[in-house]
Amino acid sequence: MDLFLLFVSTGLVIGASYGLIAMGFALVYKATGVVNFAHGELVMLTAYVAFSLTQAFDLSFIPLMLVTIPISMLIGLALERIFIRPMLGEPVFSIVMVTIGLAVILRGVTMMIWGPDPHNLTAGVTTRVIMIGHLPFYAAQLMSIAALAICTALAWAFLRFSRIGIAMRAVAAHETAALLVGISVKRIHAIAWALSAALAAVAGVLFAMNFKLAPDLWFQGLKSFPAVILGGLDAILGSAMAGLIIGLIENLSQGYIGQGLRETSGFIVIIVVLMVRPYGLFGDKDIERV
Amino acid sequence: MRTGHFQETTGQLIALTDSPAVIGWTGVLIAGLLAAPLVVGNYELTLMVTVLIAVVGAVGLNLLTGTTGLISLGQAGFLAVGAYGNAVLMVDYGWPVWLSLPAGGVVSALISLLVGIPSLRLKGLYLAITTLAFSFIVSHVILYAEPITHGPNGIFVNGAKILGVNVQKGPALYYLTLFVAVCVVLMVLNMQRTRLGRGWLAIRDHDIAARAMGIDLTRYKLLAFVVSSFIVGIAGGLLSLQIRFINIDVFGLILSIEALAIIILGGMGSVAGAIMGAVFLTLLPEAIRIAFNLILTPGSAFYSTYVYEIRGVAYGAVIVAFLRFKPDGLIGLWRDARKYWSNWPLAY
Fold it and tell me: Closest partner residue to A268 among B137, B311, B319, by Cβ?
């Protein structure tokens, strides 16, 4: 039983990181209709930016996030402006390919700036083990789960109550109609990218604190795909939930079924979900099928 | 002045080419390629083999993505299956290479059915994600199926012989890849002018309209998958012959991206474009290396440390720049140049 709970708890921790990353994917997809394949690289880049900030100013966690998130949002805005905006009106395939190209570029540039060696990012958080019942946790692990809860709540409130959030839902529902009622679709796209970069920063910093800051962090973006698909590509809150589910599936299948399933079970889930229910658990059922 | 180029019968319309100039220049190209090993050095020959393998792979992917409009991010997976199919059959089971090479392609084609079936219901992004997931699953299956694939140890691929000649080095390897590349190009060009090829084009342009015209989407899409992965699998087999040692690290995600970069650079849907893209993108790292050697001191640490990153950035830049400024790719540039030439001094 203890073993099971251990699997569950570590599954939730990694799942929280998947959920945070998946929310970023879903946010951009919902607003712009494009899967941003460079999101994982954005996660890595923002984590490295945070790392440089801690190196330079020795910030603790909260101030660090307060500085990192605005910088990340600027990065997101800049990327949208330079790479994505000029492609507006092109086929989705082209835009998605641009994000793939962008991903490779960001990956290479990050590696060239910060080098191939892994770093530790602690941000002044204690590395003492905290016991909850019988289960040991690191502070950073609990912070991941808390961050997911906070981000989900904020995203819900944003989409439900704020003017921009409602405009974003309008754009997602019908771009032309949104344009007709006076919403600047371009601005909504830019905001979606900025917010998604902010989520990437939260996810990146927490992941780096929990594990390591290494140039293969971008891979977490691809590892979070199962969560996005399971939740539904356009379901922002659903992706957060699905992240936790995927974390559990990976850990439990690795623990009880067999070696190597931690890496693959998520991708098997993708294929199963796409075959059975391509819109995911929480997504809109409006998916074109042939 | 010529007012246009008119084709009046179906036969003319679907002929491979009706231009004596094209036939002539293709002959010159083939003759040049055949004579190349007599002229060029070892290093250039290796480079040409790499280019030819890329041509085979790109023509295969182009059939799926360019002609049929099914986006694949799982190219590395199919290459891996083909390479491992060839290597396992040749090394562990002692098959002759002329049998194991196509057999690797067949294995890859069979496995593509597994991806093809779920993807029948999906298109666009969803298909891209499925194929991406597929390539990760393949690499992990290879890693954990140690009794068959040697898992993390990789396989040494040595001693492939055809008619007693070692085809893993020098001119023999070159002629083998050239032969395969020419066969593949001819096969795809000819397929594109049959009912099957036109059906694929129709699916790309509008799948619902294609179905309304009586094209069996299931069959045609699966056929596209099978044919394309067969070709890509053979490219993988050739790759395993060239690099002589394969393990799973060879077939990373960057390979899939490189493959897409090739067909975007060349121009989607055109065999000639795929060939041009393969040539240019394979030579791009070479060009970068030479450029770096000119600018920086030879063998500078920065270049040698980050050679893969520089290459990745270059691929990314090629993808982004071409999609933004010239979505038709190199073949589009060529068509523009040709049009300009034949219409000069008029604009069109």
Answer: B137
